[in-house]
Amino acid sequence: MIQNSIFSRNVYKHSPYIIAEIGVNHENSYDTAVKIIDLAKEGGADAVKFQSYKADLLASKDSPAYWDTNKEKTLNQNELFKKYDSFNENEYIKLSEYCKKINIQFLSTPFDIHSVAYLDPIVPFFKIASADINNFQLLERVSKTNKPIILSTGASNLDEIDQAIKILEKTAKKDICLMHCILNYPTENINANLSMIKSLQKKFPERVVGYSDHTLPDEKMRSIVLAYLLGATVIEKHFTHDKSLPGNDHYHAMDFNDLKILRSEINQIEELIGNEDEKKSIPSEELSRLNARRSIVTSRKLSKGHVIDEFDIVCKRPGSGITANNWYKVIGSHVLDDLPEDYLIKWSDLKIVGE
Fold it and tell me: Which among 56, 189, 256, 304 is least surrounded, fewest beta carbons within 10 Å?
């Protein structure tokens, strides 16, 4: 288990840290943002995350789509992002205060230097989007905050991840969580490649590893549950109040019901995994240990003074008499009084040779 990390949660001891990424699914409505925060809190998320950007700083006028244009019809990034970029510093400060009030952590991904500056006082750590893993200017600015960092790794390779970590650690060694991610909206199950979680763990054993999911939610939230079982201790998933809304990130997001299912599935898994690392008998097994194990029992009547041989005894349930592992100690012992057939022998019934 990785120590000294705010992201450290032993997958076999504690629930994963779940981030409900609202992003811009508020669609420029503060009241909608608050409504979605409430749903995330009620559904069991640990944090909500927004996206802080201005379209003209994020994408040029000629920036083609990289999402499923059957679901989101807009073909130009600048045009799409401009629809949802009216939130400013004041809105994010108010939302962070509301999150504090209801006890859920507030996060927002910065997509430019200015956003880093105003988010710094109101976020416990920074999240860097996959597409900015080689944006060294942004990485260096985030690094200067000296806060923990979640780095999403969609569409990158191990060398690029390693290079990004070096940039982030220019000022000081950082608490960095690496998120496996596939940069498809949505991600087909065949492309999810959750085994890459193990690749990140192997290459960066000192780092906490998480999973940012873009697959379509199913009735058991299988992709996230499996990622959790593979060791992802931070989980991020787009979150909306209404999956039927057109376009943007609604169509591949989870909603309140999905989040409740996810928490329920994880709770059941944690219950099944349990809290004991060492193999041992547990309290609920005590009655079974007593009655399902075997004791040494007479197979026929035995007279006082008889020397017991292997034909005089048999091992039968329950285990409340002389336990079966004492078989060889009982053989050769002397019977102190007449014993009936099918009798659970007690130590007080015997004189053990040599004692």
Answer: 304
Please answer whether residues 164 and 133 qualify as being in contact, where contact means their C-beta atoms are separated by less than 8 angstroms: yes
Domain identity same for 62 and 127: yes
pTM (2 d.p.):
0.89
Question: 192 and 115, same structural domain?
Answer: yes
Q: Can you tell me the distance from the alpha carbon of 35 to that of 134, in angstroms, rounded to the nearest whole number?
A: 34
- Say whether both 213 and 311 belong to one domain: no
Q: Are residues 46 and 183 in the same domain?
A: yes
| DSSP output for 248-287 | TTTTT-B-HHHHHHHHHHHHHHHHHH-S--S----GGGHH
- Sequence-distant (≥ 6) Cβ neighbours of residue 104 within 8 angstroms: 37, 40, 41, 45, 46, 47, 48
**Among 69-83, 84-98, 216-230, 294-308, where is mean pLDDT lowest?**
69-83
Domain interval for residue 287: 283-351
Q: Which residue do the tokens 């029992």 mark? A: 297
When divided into structural domains, the chain yields a total of: 2
Average pLDDT, the chain: 95
Examine the domain organization and report whether 116 and 167 are in the same domain: yes
* Domain termination residue (choose one: 252, 273, 294): 273
Nearest to 110 by CA among 153, 79, 139, 80: 139
**260 & 299 share domain:** no
Q: What is the pLDDT of residue 296?
A: 98
Query: 147 in a domain, yes or no?
Result: yes
Q: Note whether residue 47 is domain-resident.
A: yes
| DSSP letters spanning 189-254 | GGG--TTHHHHHHHH-TTSEEEEEE-BPP-TT-HHHHHHHHTT--EEEEEB-S-TTS-STTTTT-B
Q: Rounded distance, CA 178 to CA 233, Å?
A: 10
Task: For 131-178, write each residue's pLDDT tens digit.
Answer: 999 999 999 999 999 999 999 999 999 999 999 999 999 989 999 999
